[in-house]
Amino acid sequence: MGAYQLKITIKGSKPPIWRRILVPEGITFETLHHMIQASFCWSGQYPYQFEFRSEKIRAASDQIEHTGQYRYDLVTERIDGQISKDSKFTYVSFGAGSLEFVIQTEDYLKECQETAARVIKYKGESIPETCSSLEEYAGLMEVSSDKGMEYDMAAVNLRLEQMADKSEDIIISDIFDCYDKNSILEIAKRHHLDGVSKLKKEELVQKTISYILNEKIMKPYFLCVRDSEMKAFEQVISGSTELNFLEAENMDYLYAGGYVTSGPDRCFLVSKEVIKAYEAFNTEEFQEERSRISRIGDYLCAANSLYAITPPSVILETFNKYEEKKLTSDELLKAYESLRPYRLMVTYIDGNFVDAALSEQKSYTNLLRTQKKVPYYIPAHQEILFMADNSGFLMSGELSRLSQFLVSELNVPDEMIPLILRQVQAEISMGGQLQEVVNDLEAAGILMESSEHMEKLAVIVTDIWNNTRMVQNRGYKPYEMVMRGFDEVSVQRKNIQKIYPNDTCPCGSGKKYKKCCGKKA
Fold first, then answer.
1. Which of 513, 311, 290, 316 has its CA nearest to residue 419?
2. What is the pTM of this model?
């Protein structure tokens, strides 16, 4: 069994930042992705793409939409045939900064018998995964004397060995040692652990691990795990660590909490300490309570997407319409208190569940006056489940046509489409008009190249408008309002707080919006 020697350089880095690694032959592109991520102390959970430009071939993760300019290979295919044809190729991981890497195949070692990847040389310290650009990293290096940014090659290679040997028990300190300091601080913040930002990395690792494994912290966090997420977690700790794409998406919440880590080929790993702590409170009563809270959270998520301001009576009416075990007002408020620290994007104010962005603006009373004469749309059970699974997003045929138009006629990169669709839907659901959609597109660097393009966009946006469930209409589509006898559509609300790519995602995952719900469409 041989190995390839690869030099992986961040494009545009001055001085160059690179890692020279040995990777076993016969691995897949998906495995190579995780090895590269581990070698840079990153998580490996974001969409990615390998590109062989001379041959117009890409190997891309499931979340990346395809364009007709390239042939797409499966990421489960082996790397051998392709990298032997083209010794230089590129790789992009669409995380915070979507940094591009240039990969050079330097050598093939025929007699190498190692099954794990290994970093053999490097240049440049650790770049926090939250950095949005090389410029931001350079600024951090100028002002930081923090040794948490130093690159620990031994810890990285230990992590690579663990990825290769799934039979060994995973130790949580080994996982955290491989994270950069900013990633650990994000986990600490997720659990409301304050006063740790100035600790050295070693101290921070110990304190954060001790804190999140405490049952008083861990159990409330796990009470907010959704049913689909718990199913995926149980699958991993039972030994079936390789998940399909949809199952892997369900690991985001527990990953953000520091309780799981990702490996190659959609493989997730859970340390023996986390498993032991989980088993201490994992009773039948706990699972019953957690599942109940999960379902209540689904209804709160759907209601917030449809109305933004929801009285408990509407939640109760909808929940009790579809669920066998009826919900009381007291139980609803108790579930809200459990979910609020980690997942919910609503605040309970003046007897209503109010969208968190609106409550911060203190402008929800203006929307309430706009809505006051409109009845509440009660969604179908399937709509509720879809919105809960997609953090409030409702895909439509009209949005699909917008996606096709942007890709085929304006050459918008595939990876930008999910975020754009969500932004457009959010804009229109709050009453936004064509010009506001155009402004959003221009802010993303997308310009109408001709009057013909503008006309096509106007038709598509009109169709989206007529088929979007609007907050100002309490969930009704405009044509449904007309059918119900509401001739005057509610005036649009001004000064709407949008969710921008680098904002914390409102779904409660703990990640930036563009890394979480912004990438799912």
1. 513
2. 0.66
